[in-house]
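Re: [ENG-882] Designed sequences occasionally contain unexpected residues at chain ends

Forwarding the minimal case from QA. Structure tokens:
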């Protein structure tokens, strides 16, 4: 049985629960010019109202955000990530994954793909390989204009509220990279980081051409052989002028080179917090075909009593699900399977019948309900009516008294995401809020919708990477039980996301 991601939406004001426990994303005592003064860390200014803090934009002095000529690194300075490399080397794949990760951790990020801009030019939606020949004067003129248009849009977006822009194109010549450095760093004062994808493994290149390019908007209604032949010739045009990033020829540039999808990496002069996180993230991603299985623990005693948190055992119904889950996973006969659970009894009991290596992660423990732990929602509403109301207003930002918020939970899940990106096939037996944060990353769900993602009991959620996204499939394995969820919210809306349906083409200009 398949399901689509389900969310509840709220039109109420944006509130953040106050607590003495600091969020891993906040650093309110740090100066706005600090290395760690990222806008997300300071975007909420406290205004006490009914025990909550009203979220308001923080005033950041302009020179800490854009200071042309200043070389010191600051995460309050906008960053531009410029992709480099021949076509079919995975640049758009890297761009989209990087954007998904940075948005998930709270940095407003957007990809600017030059293929999209070129297709908007009349007569350039489906060009042959000759369009990319450097001897084609008209083609070169159009490609230069497309680059200018994308840069202007990127600068306009950053001026409003953008933090990290990803400039997705080939950028294969030193002349082009020097031009971009002048426009981005010298004129605007932004931070610039090049990411070059190098691949000499023909099997990977052929796989990329056949999996992605055949479905590209550039080749609508063309046969596979015709697409492959034309695209190979397009690559040849780029190879004729390709100049890889070179620390001797371009000593002042900050860059990272990724060889054959992460088998080797080289980093040169990376600066500051954001670039360090980008390097660490890109060192962990891979393109090996795999499936991630996410599932909640079986029904627990507290589930049956609609209580929050605790460390209760499974009910008889939950024990039956544990046996069903073991049979389902074991019958898949997955090689090198790893099973992750939290430290809590209900996840350990749920995974007990699954064969294979098992690891216990304290990081995967359920969201800390603090003073509300062990209470039912009706008890919380009766004893703490203001807390109950605040949580329903903005569930992502709300922090339980002496507990956690979803924002805190995202910070806690980051090491889990890094390990999931490194692994092949993994089964994660977790908790509702934890799995919502993981699904928010893989399905690229906005933070305000993340706490409303449907994660049903006794159901396995299969996540399979496809093209530039991830496909979700829900498999109910039973038995049926009372589906415990959060306090009823506004209308339920269903978001249908066709992952990987937007296929862009990388090109230099």
């Amino acid at each position: 049985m398949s399901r689509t991601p389900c969310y509840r939406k709220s039109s109420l004001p944006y509130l953040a629960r106050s607590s003495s426990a600091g969020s891993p994303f906040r650093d309110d005592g740090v100066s706005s010019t600090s290395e760690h003064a990222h806008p997300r860390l300071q975007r909420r200014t406290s205004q006490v109202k009914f025990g909550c803090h009203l979220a308001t934009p923080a005033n950041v002095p302009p020179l800490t955000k854009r200071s042309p000529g200043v070389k010191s690194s600051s995460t309050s300075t906008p960053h531009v990530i410029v992709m480099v490399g021949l076509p079919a080397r995975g640049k758009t794949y890297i761009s989209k994954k990087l954007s998904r990760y940075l948005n998930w951790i709270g940095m407003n990020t957007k990809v600017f793909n030059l293929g999209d801009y070129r297709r908007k030019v009349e007569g350039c939606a489906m060009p042959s390989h000759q369009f990319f020949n450097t001897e084609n004067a008209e083609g070169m003129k159009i490609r230069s204009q497309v680059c200018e248009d994308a840069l202007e849009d990127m600068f306009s977006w950053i001026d409003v509220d953008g933090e990290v822009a990803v400039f997705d194109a080939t950028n294969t010549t030193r002349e082009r990279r020097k031009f971009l450095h002048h426009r981005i760093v010298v004129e605007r004062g932004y931070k610039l980081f090049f990411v070059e994808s190098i691949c000499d493994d023909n099997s990977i290149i052929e796989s990329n051409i056949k999996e992605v390019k055949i479905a590209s908007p550039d080749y609508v209604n063309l046969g596979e052989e015709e697409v492959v032949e034309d695209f190979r010739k397009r690559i040849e045009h780029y190879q004729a002028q390709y100049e890889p990033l070179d620390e001797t020829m371009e000593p002042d540039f900050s860059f990272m080179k990724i060889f054959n999808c992460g088998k080797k990496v080289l980093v040169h002069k990376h600066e500051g917090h954001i670039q360090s996180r980008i390097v660490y993230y890109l060192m962990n991603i891979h393109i090996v075909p795999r499936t991630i299985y996410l599932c909640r623990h079986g029904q627990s005693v507290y589930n049956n009593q609609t209580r929050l948190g605790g460390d209760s055992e499974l009910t008889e119904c939950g024990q039956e699900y544990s046996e069903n889950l073991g049979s389902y996973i074991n019958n898949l006969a997955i090689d090198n399977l790893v099973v992750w659970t939290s430290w809590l009894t209900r996840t350990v009991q749920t995974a007990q019948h699954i064969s294979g290596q098992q690891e216990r992660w304290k990081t995967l423990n359920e969201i800390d309900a603090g003073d509300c732990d062990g209470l039912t929602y009706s008890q919380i509403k009766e004893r703490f009516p203001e807390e109950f109301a605040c949580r329903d207003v903005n569930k992502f930002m709300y922090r339980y008294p002496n507990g956690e918020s979803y924002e805190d939970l995202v910070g806690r899940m980051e090491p889990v995401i890094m390990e999931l990106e490194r692994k092949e096939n993994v089964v994660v037996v977790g908790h509702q809020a934890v799995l919502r944060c993981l699904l928010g990353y893989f399905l690229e769900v906005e933070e305000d919708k993340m706490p409303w993602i449907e994660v049903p009991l006794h159901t396995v959620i299969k996540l399979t990477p496809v093209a530039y996204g991830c496909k979700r499939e829900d498999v109910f394995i039973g038995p049926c039980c009372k589906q415990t969820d959060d306090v009823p919210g506004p209308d339920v809306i269903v978001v249908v996301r066709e992952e990987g349906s937007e296929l862009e083409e990388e090109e230099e200009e």
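QA comment: On inspection the terminal residues look reasonable. The CA atoms of residues 291 and 425 lie 5 Å apart. Proposing we downgrade this to a documentation issue.
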